[in-house]
Design goal:
The chain is built from ten helices and 13 strands. By secondary structure, the chain is an alpha+beta fold. It has a single domain (7-342), classed as PPM-type phosphatase domain (Phosphatase 2c, domain 1, 4-Layer Sandwich), CATH 3.60.40.10. The strands form three sheets. A six-stranded antiparallel β-sheet has the order 3-1-12-11-7-8. A hairpin with a 5-residue loop joins strand 7 and strand 8 (183-185). Helix 2 crosses helix 3 (90-119) and helix 4 crosses helix 5 (136-144). The radius of gyration is 22 Å and the shape is globular.
């Protein structure tokens, strides 16, 4: 039987170094529900991040990203607030999120885009800038399909007591730490895309491009979940280096100890430095906007850290360790752990 859960979320969203130099505003957006003053949450939890496309024809992608996260939160939240379905029936939940929710998100996102265009038609300045940068074909394209102007990705996580659902369209990364302490990428990249190509909410029939991962929680939650826009992973030399980031955060969280108060101090350590770290990573890496959210469940972290990092907290002296075991420990510690937007 699961204990009552308590969750901590920390996040930061920074303007990319290249955007600063070019005078381009930040195009990432993040939001979660419910909101609390201390960011300690109970279930259910919905978090969404979006990255507006950097192509000149997507000149309102910042708004597109804002519409994306608000649409995702509002669309999913209504099922919890109105208690419209039985959340113990996991088959219904899986069907809902695989077949219905992506369509609802795309349709509502387009409704919000249409309303914005109605209230604020594309200005002469916006169209002239696009003409100068991309030519008449780009103007003709957005007149035919104005949703391109607001193009954005979407990544979302939905957590309840019996399941976690991950949704994604476009680039970006969702990582979890397995019970064995290994980083795992939940949703893999689109193999049929190359370079900076990505699917988008503005893609035709975009709901068909959503990737969904449905995970049943039988006993305990993953110790840590990390969600980020692609500016983060693109700043690392390879995927292995990037995957290690979630383990690094986990070790910082555990650096104070494995009791709840100590775990929260570990979260606060990251929270105080995260914006600075992301600014440095963008400057030295991709130059792109970076948004990162880190989600942890306190009970799961307590158990995980107690089992995996007990020697860091002064418990090693309470356990008799043979020379052979000590050698094994040292050896282990030395091991290396047509519808496409081009950004």
């Amino acid at each position: 039987m699961k204990k009552n859960t308590k969750w901590r979320i920390i996040s930061s969203s920074v303007r990319g170094e290249s955007h600063i130099l070019k005078g381009i505003e930040k195009q990432d957006y993040i939001l979660w529900w419910p909101k609390t003053e201390d960011n300690l949450l109970d279930l259910p939890i919905i978090l969404a991040i979006s990255d507006g496309h950097g192509d000149p024809q997507c000149f309102r992608s910042k708004l597109g990203a804002e519409f994306a996260v608000n649409t995702a939160i509002d669309t999913i939240k209504k099922y919890f607030i109105k208690d419209k379905i039985d959340y113990s029936n996991l088959k219904i939940i899986k069907y809902l999120f695989e077949e219905k929710v992506p369509i609802e998100i795309v349709e509502e996102w387009k409704n919000r885009v249409n309303k914005n265009i109605e209230n604020e038609p594309f200005s002469d300045e916006e169209l002239t800038n696009l003409l100068n940068k991309k030519g008449q074909k780009a103007i003709d394209l957005i007149r035919k399909d104005p949703f391109i102007v607001y193009g954005a990705t979407l990544l979302s996580v939905v957590i309840d007591k019996n399941f976690i659902i991950f949704l994604q369209i476009g680039d970006g990364d969702i990582l979890v730490v397995t019970p064995e302490g290994k980083p795992k990428k939940v949703i893999q990249n689109d193999e049929n895309l190359f370079g900076n190509e990505t699917y988008s909410l503005c893609t035709s029939k975009a709901w068909l491009k959503f990737k969904i991962s449905f995970q049943i929680i039988e006993n305990k939650f993953p110790p840590l979940i990390q969600i980020s826009t692609d500016g983060y992973s693109n700043s690392f030399k390879d995927e292995e280096s990037f995957l290690k980031t979630v383990i690094d955060y986990l070790e910082i969280i555990g650096s104070e100890g494995y009791e709840e108060e100590q775990i929260l101090k570990g979260f606060n350590k990251i929270n105080e430095k995260l914006e600075q770290w992301l600014n440095e990573i963008s400057k030295e890496g991709s130059g792109d906007d970076i948004t990162v959210a880190i989600i942890g469940e306190i009970n799961s972290l307590e158990e995980y850290l107690k089992n995996k990092f007990s020697s860091y907290f002064g418990m090693k002296n309470e356990i008799k360790i043979t020379d052979k075991q000590e050698k094994q420990n040292k050896n282990y510690e030395n091991q290396d752990d047509e519808d496409i937007i081009i950004e």
